[in-house]
Amino acid sequence: MPLPSPPLAAGSGEPVGNSPCLRWSEEGGWSAAPESLAVEAPLAIEISYERAGQPVIRLLAVTMRTPGSDEELAIGFLLAEGLIEGRADVGGGGALEVNSRDERIPTWRVSLTRAPREDWQRVSRGLITSSACGLCGRTSLEGLPVSRVPEPGSGLFSEGLVASLPERLRMRQTAFAKTGGSHGAALCDAEGRVHLVREDVGRHNAVDKVMGAALLEGIDHAGKILVLSGRASFELLQKAASAGIGVVVAVGAPSSLAVDLAHAAGITLIGFTRGTRFNVYTHAGRLRTSR
């Protein structure tokens, strides 16, 4: 049975597209059925600033992302990479159709109020990276900013709250409900209030969008919980540490390097959070245990 045409119909700039496909089941055999897909498209991230009175424009990365919240993604990326420290470092920004290399590609250029530190080159990749890995393209992990979060109090939140967080995130994942193909990240507080949710085909992009949105909306990262719809990797823990977030709750498994970083950064890392069960890997003192 041939596939219908066209092979893909995804609206430009939309987070969800449509594709014809052939569906097979043992009960019903073959049938033609339209499917909703999470859109994956490139975005160039650039910065502009002045140094010694001269304008400077730098292309930092080209990432594959789900369109939408591009400003939040770019600012969250800069925050995680240590190129900005807060809202005051951002003077503005805008969308462009052509990047600084005259390549016709969607671009978000962030205008900085001050020049970044001299080692911005360690961040710059200037190449297309996968939606699965925010560290792809690096020659090493040397120089990654890894901060220690403020020392926490004890017994800040309950086991029941932790167990409920993945479902609170899932209920707000509109793109995932349509496609089953996007990651989600949420910023919650110790009372269970969900402040922000963002989605993307890349798990690191979803986190960058949440971080950027919090910075733009004046939501303090301190005392918040980062909830991840998938596994907890090193780079996601690094982003949490850079933002000063002390608790990360993941639906999936953590990696060994993520656990090592959580130990060093003072982050409470919780994984395999499913139903009424979860595992605590580091700094369990933040939990208020009932028995």
Strand order of the largest sheet: 10-9-11-12-13-14
Please state roughly what percent of the residues sit in beta strands, choosing from under 5%, 5-15%, 15-25%, 25-35%, 35-45% or over 45%.
25-35%
Rg on CA atoms, Å? 20 Å
Count of DSSP-assigned helices: 6
Class inferred from helices and paired strands: alpha/beta
H and E order: EEEEHEEEEHHEEHEHEHEEE
| pLDDT averaged over residues | 86
Commentary on this structure:
There is one protein chain. This protein has 291 residues and is of the alpha/beta class. It folds into three domains: 1-38, no CATH class; 41-129, no CATH class; 157-288, Cytidine Deaminase, domain 2 (3-Layer(aba) Sandwich), CATH 3.40.140. It is 22% helix and 34% strand. The chain has six helices and 15 strands. It has helices at residues 70-80, 159-170, 174-179, 203-217, 234-243, 256-265, and strands at residues 16-25, 29-38, 41-51, 54-65, 90-98, 104-112, 128-129, 157-158, 183-188, 194-200, 225-228, 247-250, 268-274, 277-280, 287-288. The strands form four sheets. Strands 10-9-11-12-13-14 form a six-stranded mixed sheet, with helices on both faces. A five-stranded mixed sheet has the order 5-6-3-4-7, covered by helices on one side. A two-stranded antiparallel sheet has the order 1-2. Strand 3 (41-51) and strand 4 (54-65) form a beta hairpin. Helix 5 (234-243) packs parallel to helix 6 (256-265). The longest helix has 15 residues, at 203-217.
